[in-house]
Design a protein that fits this description.
The chain is an alpha+beta fold. Helix content is 24%, strand content 31%.
Length: 299
């Protein structure tokens, strides 16, 4: 029984149980099988286990109620926002709270890592315990084009997750060896089969809560009035300002970019915009309107 509880506490498998009233030793027993699961189910299962009289256990065993309380205490330290647990947070919890990915192995030598603050620095880093190298995690950059044509903008309907079936500007991750403009032109060609000329930068939007992702959107025009869906798009279409589907856009960054563009067009002057998109805590990533635009600057 204790072995089963130890498995529950550290495994990444869901335990399916079938109770037998008594085993040959006079103790309750269970038959177990394993399926993938999250740690939430292990905690729920442990809470559901009945307490047992410690007098029935061998002398060198830990009572089940004590083992269950240990796991329950660990679960409370994971979930309690008020920090009432008296035990210090585990290294994995410190990594999660710092926003650092939990890197377990060194990308150079393959050795195991530890997470610590290097001397002279202020942030938690993954440090190889074999070669001593520090693994730095840096922001990802998304680049794309806001294409103007006949007083309309070109949007693509996504044929991939996330945000399948929703509208977006042609945009994607910058590749190694590309300039930002080269990446924006390539993404437009891949998603809309369109050849464009970049005119000027339009917006830089930082989104710290999703790994310090940065969007750079360029104003562009079609070299030729031809476009069609690429492999990641199911449809491409030109929208007038009044017809932009603001409730069917793929991401908050698209809502912000197109809203700023519409305002600029109505004011008669296109500007360059910078801002920080902060998603409201506790909201779903699919809730594209659950955000605030902070530090908005324009010129």
């Amino acid at each position: 029984m204790l072995k089963a509880i130890q498995i529950l506490g550290c495994s990444s498998s869901l335990v399916t149980q079938r109770w037998k009233p008594f085993s040959s030793q006079g103790l309750p027993s269970i038959a177990i099988s394993f399926k993938p699961f999250s740690s939430f189910y292990a905690v729920s299962f442990l809470k559901a286990l009945p307490t047992m009289d410690s007098s029935l256990l061998p002398k060198d065993s830990t009572p089940m109620s004590q083992s269950r309380s240990i796991h329950a205490s660990s679960a409370r330290s994971d979930s309690n926002p008020d920090g009432t647990s008296s035990s210090p947070p585990s290294p994995s919890l410190a990594v999660q709270s710092s926003g650092v990915r939990n890197i377990k192995f060194c990308q150079w030598c393959g050795g195991p890592t530890k997470h610590d603050i290097p001397e002279g620095e202020e942030r938690l880093r993954a440090i190889c315990t074999i070669c001593g190298k520090i693994i730095y995690q840096n922001p990802k950059m998304v680049v794309g084009c806001l294409i103007q044509h006949d007083n309309k903008v070109l949007l693509c309907k996504r044929k991939i997750q996330p945000s399948y079936g929703l509208w977006t500007l042609p945009a994607g991750y910058l590749e190694i060896g590309e300039s930002a403009t080269e990446g924006a032109i390539r993404e437009t060609r891949e998603e809309a089969n369109a050849e464009v000329e970049v005119l000027s930068p339009f917006a830089q939007l930082d989104i710290p809560l999703i790994g310090q992702q940065t969007y750079i959107i360029f104003l562009a025009k079609l070299k030729k009035p031809h476009f069609s869906p690429g492999p990641e798009s199911s449809e491409c279409r030109l929208f007038s300002l009044d017809d932009i589907p603001f409730d069917s856009l793929s991401f908050s960054s698209m809502v912000v970019t197109l809203s700023m563009y519409a305002e600029d067009i109505k004011s008669g002057k296109l500007k360059f915009h910078y801002g920080v998109i902060n998603k409201r805590l506790g909201t779903s990533p699919s809730d594209i309107h659950a955000y605030t635009l902070d530090n908005h600057m324009q010129s």
